[in-house]
Amino acid sequence: MSSDEQPPAPRSLAEALRARDDASLAALLRSRPDLITPVPTDLTQLATRAGTRASVARALERLDRFALQTAQALAVAGDPATYDELLGLMASDDRDPVVAAALPRVLDTLREQALVWGDDDRLRLVRTARELLAPQPRRPSPTGLGPTVKEATAGMSPGRIQEILAAVGLPSTHDSVSAVASLTALFTDRERMSALLSELPADSLAVLDRLVWGPPYGQITPEPAPHLRHLLDRGLLLPTAPGTVVLPREVALHLRGGRAHRTPEPVPPAVETAATHHPQAVDATAAGQAHTALATVEELLKGWDEGGPHVLRAGGLSVRDLKRTAVALDVPEPVAAFWVELAHLAGLVASDGEADERYAPTPACDEWLERPAAERWARLAAAWLVSTRTPGLVGERDAKDRTLSALGPGLDRSAAPEVRHRVLTLLAGLPVGAAPSAESVLARLRWERPPRGVQREDELRERLARWALSEAELLGVTGRGALSAHGRALLGAPPPPAPAAEPAAEEHAEPVGPGDKLPVHQHHKHPQHHRPGPDAGPPEPPSLAERTAAAARALAPLLPEPLDHVLLQADLTAVAPGPLQRPLADMLDLLADVESKGGATVYRFTPASVRRALDAGHSAADLHAFLAAHSRTPVPQPLSYLIDDAARRHGHLRVGAASSYVRCDDETLLDEILADKRSAALRLRRLAPTVLAAQADPATLLEGLRAMGHAPAAESAEGDVVITRTASYRTPPRTAPEPVPEGPPPPDAALLAAAIRAIRAGDRASASPRPPAAPPATQGELPRTSSAETLAALQAAVLTGETLCIGYIDAEGTAGRRVVAPVRVEGGLVTAYDHTADEVRTYPLHRVTGVAELAEDER
């Protein structure tokens, strides 16, 4: 296309958006999802919304450091600015080749996000962004530059301006406007400005050096020193208020060599490798930690099986209960808070909602315990990955000075899943087995999301990254600090780079060296000309469910198979050399006490633990048979004696409820109990030769007799032995807590396509008035189908992209036909592109009378 055939330059952001193709509009809406909520009626409304203060501020916050530096440079450049002017501000007079190579990419990003529009000869930063980034009175810009000469002399008397012209050797003018223009021309002329500065004394130059990189304001006395008077007379410092002076922007840029920033950062800092491990060692370590994570969560559920701690009035777990949980799990309190929160996120623990509210396992817990170990881990990891809750805040205080408690309110931080996902993505970009240094990860995140100047928020982002690294190690997503194979599958990351290859910076162009030939900067007049194609964007990434399933498949071969046996030893212990099958583990928990954990679990048999199994209704024969069936070693004789002795004594004494009583056929044994001083607290007295009465309740009497070394059994009112089994307590069905995101979620491809189609239709309608819409069809009946058929047809149309005719009754009771292309069906609503209205609309399903194929005249 010749220069004469080039389309005219856009005069507004709306015109610039109108020149874009669908792929470019989709990229804009994907990067700034707030613009699509709700869907704009046309491109003019889209441009207006893209220029609102809240939307622009949110877009600026998501720019990387170099893109933000470029926007800041445009804010202090002319309006409009040329590409060469912007290049000078970013790459200085020396034209830094690395900055020059990275600038086109960043400029494309700013254009894509509608923060910059216009051709290379007329670059414009949207007005709201300029207001947010440009210098204001008493507020220098992030570049450290002050106001221009024109802005700083706005309130200066004409005579004073003429005095400055005379001091710098410029001819006087007839008005202030031409005088300011003449002074500005001097300060922007490199040669004349160098000559002017060469005449200044060293003390004056030292003052300029202190102000050149900001802040550009300084204080002076009513009678300034001679070296300051030199600067004031020549306009190199201009007064802004009594006792305050400012360094004009043009002077500062000359002293900086034309650069807007002291240190432009076009290339992200590399994530440094702190250690390199064999991939198999990484996967094995991560799998071992995943197994430990499952065991810890199961132990937590077991400890709360009969009902966990009470819920605080304000919600959450008390400090005392968290300490008890930490002791039970044998972990520090912050780690205990993480496991409690993780069980809650996975929907395994919740409050029961009763009057005496307490935490307990949910019904979903039983289903989870029956799943294979890899699937159980994947569910925990997926819940952690997308959660906005941050257990690391437990114990701190909120803005109202209230303590944040585990499972309580106030722990949601919307940035948590984004930071967590980004940290893992950086790990996935390293060679397999490479563990990064935490500081290099933090430096990279600071480049990608520069600090906003709000200390609390900036510190939180760094803490979120540190927590992500430690929690990933606890959970088994990483091993020895490196991302595991199942962690990579959970993330949906591409295959890892070869170890010998240099890790490339994700989403950023590779810098060129000083000796490399710079690419020619071109094709920026019409962004759609260099788009890859007319599609609405890249293919949809795998869903969380698909990634969770892939992670489970990757982890399954690394986890040990559950065992059906133990090793009995002569010292009344049993060694489980690995995880046990659930029925075996449950029975061992009843029959023995856990003595130690690790690679192998050691159980110890005691009289109390054997009595616990007998109380649950198992006979001595049952216990002997169980041990013989599940031990790879012969049952030791001391263990057989222990079981027989406990069974022989078990139930010899009977305790019932009178207040309570003890009965026994052996009168000598009752005499022994009465003579024992330890029975004094029970206040026993003989009612009959074989019966003792007590003032204590049956439970206290049982515990007292057991403390004296006896093995009593409780009996019912009918005289039968009471078998005590632990009653599991479950909450009513509960759903896992939903993440609390900041702003609307990114739209999917179907919604993007429908929205762009509606925006284009609205734009055409606003350009050429549409004829009045035809009234709703009255001939014949509306489409009538059952609710199930309607739902099935709409869901099928979402998958196939088919256009349908629906019958619809609006809120006023008016019935009509609508030609729609369904986009989403959920929550009792159908979101569709309405061809009748040329816009995206949402219809309640209960108002849809039915679905039918399009008639010939509707196609």
From TrEMBL:
Biased composition (Basic residues): 520-531
Tagged with keyword Nucleotide-binding: yes
Region (Disordered): 487-548, 763-784
Record InterPro entries: WYL_dom, XPB/Ssl2_N
KW Transit peptide (keyword) present: no
Highest taxon listed in the record's lineage: Bacteria
Annotated Helicase XPB/Ssl2 N-terminal domain residues: 566-688
Annotated TM spans: none
Single annotated GO MF: helicase activity
Domain WYL per the UniProt entry, residue ranges: 789-851
Protein name, entry field: Helicase-associated domain-containing protein
Organism: Streptomyces thermogriseus
Organism placement in taxonomy: Bacteria, Bacillati, Actinomycetota, Actinomycetes, Kitasatosporales
